[in-house]
Amino acid sequence: MKTEAKTGGPAGGALRVNGERLWESLMEMARIGATGRGGVCRLALTEEDRGAREQFRAWCAQEHCEISIDRIGNLFARRRGRDSAGPPVVLGSHLDSQPTGGKFDGAYGVLAGLEVVRRLNELDIATQAPLEVAVWTNEEGARFAPAMLGSGTFAGVFDLDEALGRADAEGTSVRAALDRIGYAGPAEVGGRPFGAHLELHIEQGPVLEQESATIGVVTGVQGIRWYDLELEGAEAHAGPTPMHLRRDPVPIAAKALKAVFEIATGRGPAARATVGQISSEPSSRNTVPRRVRASVDFRHPEATVLDAMETELRSLSWNLGGGGVRAELSRIWASDPVSFDPRCVAAVREAADRLGHRHLDLVSGAGHDSVYLSRVAPTAMIFVPCEGGISHNEAENARREDLAAGADVLLNAALDLAEVER
Ligand code: HGY
Ligand code: MN
Ligand code: MN
Hints:
12 helices, binds manganese (II) ion, binds (2S)-amino(hydroxy)ethanoic acid, 5-stranded antiparallel beta sheet, alpha+beta, 10-stranded mixed beta sheet
C-alpha cells in the first residue's frame, strides 16, 4: 500500500505554521476527557465531546470565524475569502475519540486546521475561496455505529432520520444525545458544495516511521465491513447440566471467532480482521450463557477480496449453528475502498516537496471522514508518523516537529487549492 519515499526540494517560498502554538492547543484539548494513562475518552456526543467542541468554538471566536452547526452536529468554522459566497476549502476531521483513545487521533486534523486560520490571520493573507474547519460528528463509531456517521450523512450516504435514530448500547439515540449537549444545529446536512476537503491525520500505522518519511501523501483508503454475530442457545446450571445436554453458544463462538481470523490470515498481509466487542448474557459465572454477541471488522484495499471474505464468513456461520444453537450474522456497515482526487493529492505532494519533506504515497488502513467527503468534494489526506504506529491506544504519541510539518503541508496545500478560480 505504499510507493518509494521521495525527498522534497528546497524549502523556499513555503509558509509555515506556529508549531509551538499547535502543540499547546493539542495539549490543552487533550485535557478534555483526559484518562489516567495519558490518553483521552471523548465518546461522541458526550459531555467530554461537548467540552471539546466548546473549546474549539472559543478558539475560533478569537479568530473571528463564523460558526454553523448542522442537524447531525457537524460543526463548521468559516474564514471569509475574497469570493465570500464561493465554495470553501474545508480542513476537517473529528474530536470524538475511542474509549481508550489518544491525544492526536482526530483532534490533530481539527486543530491544525485552526492553526492554518490563525496563521493566515496573523499574516493577514486573504484567500480567494473561504476556508472552513470542520468537526465531523461520530467519526469513531465507538458509541454509535456505524463510524463516520456525521460525514456520511453530509455526503448523502446515510439517511438523516436513520442516522439520528442510531442508538448506543444504553439505548440513547443520536438525536437525544445531540439535544442533551445542545448540538442539534439548524443547518441542513450536506447539499452545499466544497471546493476541496483536506484532512490531516496521524498515520496510525508503522509505515512512515519505518521508511523515515515525514509526510504520507494519502492516495486512498481501504475498504471496511462491520458485522454483528449473534449466537443464541439456552441458559443452564453450570453444575448439574451434563455437557452433552447443553445448548451452549460459547464453544460455537470460539470456533466462529477462530475462523474469522483464519479468513483474514488466509488472504495475505493486506487483509485485516478484528473482534473488538464480545459479550455474553446473562454473564453469570455459574450459568451457561443464553446468548453470545461479537463484532467483526474486516478490512482490505480491494472490494472483491472483502466480498470473498464476507462470503466465507456467511457460509461459515450458518453451519456453526449446530447443537441447538441459533447463529445470526448481520452486516451493519460497508465502506468501499476509495481513491482520492488527483488534483488534491498533487497539491499535497507539491507542498511536501516545497517544504523539503521526505514523503511517500500510501493507502490509509484506517477509515476517515474523508472517505465520505470524497463522494461530494475533491478530497485528499495528509499523514504524519506516530510513535510505533500505535493508535486507538492511550499511549498514542507523535513528535512535535512531525506534527508541525504536517500542518505546514496542510497550510500550503490549502492555499494552493483555495486560490483556484472556480
Ligand atoms: O475505524 C476506523 O478506521 C476509524 O478510526 N474510525
Ligand atoms: Mn481518526
Ligand atoms: Mn480513530
